[in-house]
């Protein structure tokens, strides 16, 4: 059972490092559904802040050619108002920010596309569909990361804790303390790894859920 009263003093950067250890990515044929249930539940029982998805993949194209493909897809789906700097292409408006980075390692051309959204009406399922319109259709080894962030409504907090408890596989929860709250990692009933954190800023409390890791600062 979740128990955020049992704290271990640890620096935030160490907490984040520990949460990443042992994490795995979700592949393109994911069948996990527990995160989407949690996303909907916490969004309905708190004040939605943001959600997002990150896609990593490998391309057979050269870096410049891959950048051209992604640029054309940005323009086709988002219009001409994009920023290009070196190996990075980005788009930003009042409710979403999308950034694509392309680089070459010793063997492959690699791509990372990150989409952060602040519309309550768009869940990570929709974001995934949108981000797939930007990727190279010949992408290989596609992997996804997802997150949702909400501001806690105190009267609904226990309901959120109960739902988390019900979706977490028994004996997989590991908790620790950070300087402004608590962090945890666990395995959901469908086998997907999840990280989550309750944090305090001024008088407000926030919850962020991420699979398999939280890829944004919290």
From TrEMBL:
Q: What residues form the membrane-spanning segments?
A: 7-24
Keywords of this entry:
Membrane, Transmembrane, Transmembrane helix
Record's protein name? TATA-box binding protein
- Which species is this UniProt entry from? Clostridium tertium
